[in-house]
Amino acid sequence: MGSGTLPQSAFGKLTPVWHPSPNFGPRRDGARPDMVVIHYTAMVSAREARDWLCNPQAEVSAHYVISRQGTVWQLVDEHMRAWHAGAGAWGEVADVNSRSIGIEIANTGAEPFPEPQMAALEELLRSIVARWQVRPERVIGHSDLAPGRKIDPGPRFDWQRLALQGLAARPQLDVQEGIGQGKVSLDELAGPLAAIGYTADTDMETKLAAFRLRYRPWATGRATEADQVLAQRIARDYPVDPGPRSA
User: Fold this and answer.
1) Distance separating alpha carbons of residues 96 and 146, to the nearest angstrom
2) Stated pTM of the model
3) CA angle 201, 235, 128 (to 5 degrees)
4) Are 34 and 133 in contact (CB under 8 A)?
5) If you ran DSSP here, which 8-state letter would residue 8 be given?
6) What does each C-alpha distance from 236 to 21, 156, 190, 199, 203 come to in angstroms?
7) Which residues contact 10 (CB under 8 A, 6 or more apart)?
8) Measured distance CA(125)–CA(37) in Å, rounded
9) Are strands 35-40 and 139-141 parallel, antiparallel or unpaired?
10) Are 208 and 202 in contact (CB under 8 A)?
11) Are the C-beta atoms of 59 and 157 separated by less than 8 Å?
C-alpha cells in the first residue's frame, strides 16, 4: 500500500507524513470518491488518535489525521476505502465510506480549532477537491450523514471559513428580505432537507438539529421561517448529487 501514496507535489505546500493503517479495503462496486467527510477525534492527543486509527482491533480508520500544530498524517491511500463514516447516508449514498475521503481533526469537541490546523485542512482540502473534482456541497461533517449519532466536527468548527474559499457550501441570504421567526412545521422542512442531502434514517427533529448544527448552531426550539428559507436556498443552490460514480 505504501507505493500507492500520493507524491508530495500533489498536496501543494503540504507534506503529509505516511503512517499506514491496516484498517481499509477496496471501494465497493467500482466507486470513486466524490465526497469529503470531516470529523473530530474526540481525543486530547493527536498521536493517540492516529495510533488508534492504525490499531487493527479498533476496526476504524480515516485517510488523514490533522494535529493541532498542523501536522498531517496520511493513514490510507485515497483510492482505498477507509472505515470512518459508519452507518448513515447523504442523498442517495448509503455506503458513504466507498464514496468519500475521511479527515480526522484533533479536537475534543469543546475547544476551538487553531489556525495551524485550519490552514493545513484548507491546503489538504484544496488538493483533494482538485484531484477528485469534489463539489463544495459534498464536503460535509460526520453529523450531516449521521444525524443524532454523531455531532462532529461540532458547533465550534468554522464552516464559513471553508465556504468563503469555495471548499464548502455557502448559502446566499439577503438580510434585507427580513426573514421572520414565525414557526413552521417539520413537514415543511422535509423536502428541502432531503434535497440538500439529509436522508439518513431518523426523525425530522434530529435532521433539523443536524442542519442547524452545520448552518445555524445558535438556533434552538421549534423550526422557524429562518430554518425554512435557509434550507430552501441551500437546496436550490447546492442540491445533493445523486447516483453512483464509477472509476
Assistant:
1) 10
2) 0.93
3) 85
4) yes
5) G
6) 39, 26, 14, 17, 23
7) 127, 131
8) 11
9) parallel
10) no
11) no
Q: For the segment 158-210, what is each residue's pLDDT rounded down to a tens digit?
A: 999 999 999 999 886 654 445 667 899 999 999 999 999 999 999 999 999 99
36 in Cβ contact with 101 (< 8 Å) = yes
Task: Find cell 455506503 and name the residue.
Answer: 95
User: What residues are annotated to the active site?
Assistant: 104
Give dist(CA 100, CA 88) in Å, integer: 13
DSSP per-residue string spanning 84-119: ---S--BTTBS-HHHHEEEEEE---SSS---HHHHH
pLDDT in tens, 127-171: 999 999 999 999 999 999 999 999 999 999 999 999 999 999 988
> Beta strand pairing status for 100-105 and 64-66?
parallel
CA 181 centroid distance within chain: 29
Sheet holding 139-141, edge to edge: 17-18, 72-74, 64-66, 100-105, 35-40, 139-141
Beta 80-82 vs 17-18: how paired, if at all?
unpaired
